[in-house]
Write a structure and sequence with these properties.
The chain is of the alpha/beta class. It contains twelve helices and nine strands. Strand 3 and strand 4 form a beta hairpin.
C-alpha cells in the first residue's frame, strides 16, 4: 500500500515540478521521515537538533548544476550541443519525458530521413526537439512559401500522396510536425495529427508559433493530444492515409535498445485498428530505419498479414 502510494506521489511531483526541484522535494520528504524517527526517541542530543535545523536549508540551497540530470555523452543531445553556438532554448520535464529544444544558428539542423538523391533542395532552417536526450524530431521554419519545403515530396513518406489526390490523412505521432507540413504541401483537405506529449504540442503550436508562421493554426489541421491507439479506437471517422513515422533515433534502433521495450503501436491488434479506419483504397504507411539484413520491414509485413487474416471485416 505504502509503496503504491509512493509511486503515485512521484508521478504527481514530476507533473508539477521540473527534474531538479523534484529531487529537492524527494530529499526533503526523506528528511521529514528521519525527523519523525528522531523525535520518537525520548532523549534527543542537542547535536541532532542542530543538524535538523541546518538540513532543510541545504536542500534548497544546493546549486541547480548539482541536481540537474546530465545525459550520457553518446546521447544525441550531447552531440548536438557540441556544435559551436548550439544552445538549449526550451526545456520541459514530465512523467512522460524530458523534452529539450535546441537551436544551432551556426550549423543548422538538416533532418530529412530518406531524402532522394534527385531532390533539388533540402530542408531549410530547423530547430531540434530531443526527447529524453535521444529521440529527435525537427521543427522546420516555414514562411508560407510552399517552394521552401518542396524537399518533403522527395522522401519515402510522400509516396501515398502520389497515389491519391488530396487525401484525408491521420498522422500518428506528430512530433515536430514534418508529416503535417508534408500533408499541407500536397493539399490534404483534412489533417488530423495525434501527439501523446502535451509539452511537444505546446512547443510546436505556442512556443515556436512565430518560427513556423503560426502554421499549426490552419483551419484544416486538427491536433489531438492523446495516445494514438486510444484515439483511433474512439473514432468512427475514416481516413485515406494513416501514417506512422519514425518514433526512435537511428542510433537506438541500430543498437537494438528498443528490443525489450513494449510498443503497442506495432501489434496485430493495432494494425486491425488502423486498417479498420481506412477508406476503401486507403493506405497505411509506416516508416522505419533501414537495416541490413532487413528486420523491421519483415516484422511489419508479417504483422499486417496476421491482422488481415484475423479480421474478415478489413
Amino acid at each position: 500500500m505504502g509503496a503504491g502510494c509512493g509511486a503515485l506521489f512521484i508521478l504527481l511531483i514530476l507533473s508539477l515540478f521540473d527534474t531538479t526541484n523534484s529531487l529537492r522535494i524527494i530529499a526533503f520528504l526523506g528528511y521529514i521521515a528521519s525527523l519523525l524517527v528522531i523525535f520518537s526517541i525520548k532523549r534527543i542530543n542537542w547535536i541532532w537538533i542542530l543538524v535538523l535545523l541546518i538540513l532543510p536549508i541545504n536542500f534548497f540551497l544546493l546549486p541547480e548544476s548539482w541536481l540537474r540530470p546530465i545525459p550520457l555523452p553518446y546521447k544525441a543531445l550531447n552531440k548536438a550541443l557540441n556544435v559551436p553556438k548550439a544552445n538549449i532554448i526550451t526545456e520541459y520535464s514530465s512523467p512522460l519525458a524530458q523534452v529539450t529544444v535546441v537551436e544551432s544558428p551556426l550549423v543548422h539542423f538538416r533532418h530529412a530521413p530518406g531524402l532522394s538523391l534527385n531532390a533539388q533542395s533540402g530542408p531549410g532552417e530547423q530547430l531540434g526537439i530531443f526527447i529524453d536526450a535521444d529521440s529527435f524530431t525537427p521543427i522546420t521554419k516555414f514562411n508560407g512559401d510552399l517552394e521552401s519545403i518542396n524537399y518533403l515530396d522527395k522522401q519515402p513518406d510522400a509516396l501515398p500522396f502520389y497515389l491519391l489526390e488530396k487525401p484525408k490523412i491521420l498522422v500518428l505521432g506528430m512530433g515536430g510536425g514534418s508529416d503535417v507540413l508534408r500533408s499541407f504541401y500536397f493539399g490534404a483537405p483534412v489533417i488530423d495529427a495525434v501527439e501523446l506529449n502535451p509539452q511537444i504540442v505546446k512547443i510546436v503550436t505556442k512556443d515556436q508559433k512565430n518560427y513556423t508562421n503560426n502554421f499549426f493554426s490552419q483551419s484544416n489541421i486538427r491536433i489531438h493530444t492523446k495516445e494514438a491507439r486510444s484515439f483511433i479506437r474512439g473514432q468512427k471517422e475514416t481516413w485515406d492515409i494513416i501514417q506512422l513515422s519514425l518514433f526512435d533515433s537511428l542510433t537506438a534502433a541500430n543498437a537494438g535498445v528498443f528490443a525489450l521495450k513494449e510498443n503497442n503501436l506495432y501489434t496485430v491488434e493495432a494494425f486491425r485498428d488502423y486498417m479498420g479506419h481506412l477508406n476503401p483504397g486507403g493506405f497505411l504507411t509506416i516508416t522505419r530505419w533501414l537495416k541490413l539484413p532487413p528486420k523491421d520491414s519483415l516484422k511489419l509485413l508479417a504483422t499486417a498479414v496476421s491482422a488481415l487474416e484475423s479480421d474478415s471485416k478489413i
